[in-house]
């Protein structure tokens, strides 16, 4: 990452907004404006509106032809703002780099629909893929920020519902601790060009709506049993107040016997991968993420091929 690139990205993210707590409308409009500046590989993907479960979704496919496997993507935005369209620089780059098709879900947002509405929607979407006959060994759950947290908690909800796990989890700077007890909440204050504790508390209160932040589906990094989750790749930057959401999630997953890769990029901000084409480290991280996705899909395919051959005789 060049010094000039770092400075430019930091300047973009630090552009001042209105003083004081922002309204929901201001948050949503500001986020749309920011994400509209990201580079989307339109020449390598095609998109179409669809539905998944009972929610709208955006289907994203590579123009060169869709390979076997599905990315189920959950956008970021603090559970309050964001959409499949604002996440298109991320989903589009993953699709273009892997050749896999993706569904990006338009899950319900707070404050109109607080916890657990988002998880109900993401679980319903995953169940819809299974119900239409898609093999869980060919599905990867992915997301950024709040959506990265949803990728994790959807797997927890699926496990508790008796559903099979997908073949992997990809999480960009996931939000996994609603208790806000990580040390980085203090040590990265001011270093983080996007978030402050106060700003996170403002949107977090909309999503919680009085729910206990220690709930496992709100704070899986510190309060969930992660046993049985699929292999996961967690990517995070060091310039994040949410850094410890990732480091503690990785430690807890590893302690539960989950295969986990914690991929930390120095001097990078929250969900820096969205700056593909602007920040060298964003493109490099997306390449590593694409490799993980392809490896997980191949591993699922190998499992499907070998299971019948290793089964004992019947009859």
Which secondary structure elements does this structure contain, and how are they paired or packed?
Layout: H1 3-13, H2 24-35, E1 45-52, E2 55-62, E3 70-74, H3 88-98, E4 101-105, H4 117-131, E5 139-144, H5 146-160, E6 168-172, H6 184-187, H7 197-208, H8 220-223, E7 232-237, H9 243-255, E8 260-265, H10 280-310
Parallel strand pairs: 3-4, 3-5, 5-6, 6-7, 7-8
Antiparallel strand pairs: 1-2, 2-4
Give a brief rundown of this model.
This protein has helices spanning 3-13, 24-35, 88-98, 117-131, 146-160, 184-187, 197-208, 220-223, 243-255, 280-310; strands at 45-52, 55-62, 70-74, 101-105, 139-144, 168-172, 232-237, 260-265. With 315 residues, it is an alpha/beta fold. It has a single domain (3-14, 31-304), classed as Alpha/Beta hydrolase fold, catalytic domain (Rossmann fold, 3-Layer(aba) Sandwich), CATH 3.40.50.1820.
How many DSSP H or I helices? 10
The CATH class label is Alpha Beta
Q: What is the fourth-level CATH superfamily?
A: Alpha/Beta hydrolase fold, catalytic domain
Average of the residue pLDDT scores: 93
Assembly state: single chain
Main beta sheet, described? 8 strands, mixed
**Cross-sheet strand order for the largest sheet:** 1-2-4-3-5-6-7-8
The share of residues in extended strands comes to 15-25%
The helical percent reads 40-55%
Class from secondary-structure proportions: alpha/beta
Any guess at the CATH architecture? Answer: 3-Layer(aba) Sandwich
Q: Could you give the count of β-strands?
A: 8
What would you say this structure looks like, in words?
The structure is a single chain. The chain is of the alpha/beta class and 315 residues long. It has a single domain, classed as Rossmann fold (3-Layer(aba) Sandwich). The protein has ten helices and eight strands. The chain has an eight-stranded mixed sheet with strand order 1-2-4-3-5-6-7-8, sandwiched between helices. Strand 5, helix 5 and strand 6 (168-172) form a beta-alpha-beta unit. It is globular, with a radius of gyration of 19 Å. 48% of the residues are buried.
């Amino acid at each position: 990452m060049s010094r000039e690139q770092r400075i430019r990205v930091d300047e973009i993210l630090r552009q001042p907004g209105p003083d004081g707590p922002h309204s929901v409308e201001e948050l949503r409009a500001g986020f749309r404006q920011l994400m509209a500046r990201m580079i989307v590989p339109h020449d390598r993907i095609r998109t179409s509106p669809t539905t998944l479960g009972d929610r709208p979704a955006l289907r994203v496919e590579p123009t060169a032809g869709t390979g076997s496997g599905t990315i189920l993507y959950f956008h970021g935005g603090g559970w309050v703002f964001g959409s499949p369209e604002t996440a298109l620089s991320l989903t589009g780059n993953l699709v273009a780099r892997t050749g896999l098709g993706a569904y990006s879900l338009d899950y319900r947002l707070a404050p109109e629909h607080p916890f657990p509405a988002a998880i109900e929607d993401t679980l319903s979407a995953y169940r819809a893929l299974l119900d239409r006959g898609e093999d869980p060994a060919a599905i990867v759950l992915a997301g950024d920020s709040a959506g990265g947290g949803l990728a994790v908690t959807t797997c927890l909800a699926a496990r508790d519902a008796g559903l099979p796990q997908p073949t992997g989890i990809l999480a960009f700077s996931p939000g996994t601790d609603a208790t806000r007890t990580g040390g980085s909440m203090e040590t990265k204050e001011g270093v983080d060009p996007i978030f402050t504790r106060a700003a996170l508390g403002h949107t977090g209160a909309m999503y919680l709506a009085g729910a206990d932040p220690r709930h496992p589906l709100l704070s899986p990094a510190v309060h969930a049993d992660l046993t049985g989750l699929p292999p996961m790749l967690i990517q995070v930057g060091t310039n994040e107040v949410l850094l410890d959401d990732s480091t503690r999630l990785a430690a807890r997953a590893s302690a539960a016997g989950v295969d986990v890769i914690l991929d930390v990029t120095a001097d990078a901000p929250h969900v820096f991968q969205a700056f593909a084409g602007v920040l060298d480290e964003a493109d490099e991280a997306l390449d590593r993420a694409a490799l993980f996705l392809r490896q997980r899909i191949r591993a699922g395919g190998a499992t499907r091929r070998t299971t019948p051959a290793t089964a004992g005789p019947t009859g």
